[in-house]
Amino acid sequence: MDLTLYYHPLSSYCHKVLIALYEHGTAFDKRVIDLSSEAERAELRALWPLVKFPVLHDRARPCSVPESSVIIEYLDRYHAGAGRLIPDDWDTALQVRLWDRFFDNYVMTPMSQIVADRIHDRQGDLTSQRTLLNTAYGMIEHQLATRQWIASPDFSLADCSASPALFYASTLVPFPGDHGHLNAYFERLVQRSAFKQVLEEAKPWFEFYPFAEAIPQRFR
Ligand SMILES: N[C@@H](CCC(=O)N[C@@H](CS)C(=O)NCC(=O)O)C(=O)O
């Protein structure tokens, strides 16, 4: 197999790339990295000195591709299935990239900060992170008023980012009940077969998530 994904089944950024791989139906090998093992950290460091996953290695070219959004761009270019996650139309592609950045920077980041503070038993600025998540929820609600997917008529890179970001964020700050579009969008995401598969594979690991009790029973 040409492609190997270095990843962890609980990691939100890895979920984002797994969704893209499953959407394309691309064959790949999995290499789970346990960051508590120095040998496995060294293996990841050799590919990406920042020691962050996901990293995709492509033996055929050969190259290692880090950064979830860049990996998905790479898959679209070299290993795509029938569809594309970044549309050909330039203006729509720009919106897809904008919403990808939005989910990484303003949903994934505050969510990860709250989780990291809990893991390291730190007194973080919970109020700021929660405010940021609520602001983001309001913007998503507005964006979805006339759309099925967040940035393009078809499921895109931005929806790959949205899926794990919203999944984990909702365990920390629940979606407001009056955000009907956001709640319905989340249901569409968790019903999407690629994300369903990712969530199924993450099941055995959820007990290690510090807010495991907040994950709805239907996903555990
Ligand atoms: N910007 C990166 C973020 C990757 C990232 O932060 N991954 C986390 C897991 S979700 C990680 O590797 N954390 C390990 C660490 O920071 O030590 C991407 O989009 O891939």
Descriptors:
Glutathione S-transferase Yfyf (Class Pi), Chain A, domain 2; 2 domains; 4-stranded mixed sheet; globular; binds glutathione
What is this structure's SSE topology?
Blueprint: E1 3-7, H1 12-24, E2 29-32, H2 38-47, E3 55-58, E4 63-66, H3 68-78, H4 90-119, H5 126-143, H6 157-172, H7 180-191, H8 193-202
The site of glutathione has 11 residues, from helix 1 and helix 3.
Model description:
With 220 residues, the protein is of the alpha+beta class. The protein is 55% helix and 8% strand. It contains eight helices and four strands; from the N terminus they run E-H-E-H-E-E-H-H-H-H-H-H. The protein has helices at 12-24, 38-47, 68-78, 90-119, 126-143, 157-172, 180-191, 193-202, and strands at 3-7, 29-32, 55-58, 63-66. The protein has a four-stranded mixed sheet, covered by helices on one side. Helix 1 runs parallel beside helix 3 (68-78), helix 1 (12-24) packs across helix 8 (193-202) and helix 4 packs antiparallel against helix 5 (126-143). The longest helix is centred in the middle third of the chain and has 30 residues, at 90-119. It starts with a strand and ends in an 18-residue tail after the last helix. The structure holds glutathione. Residues 11-13, 35, 51-54, 67-69 line the site of glutathione.
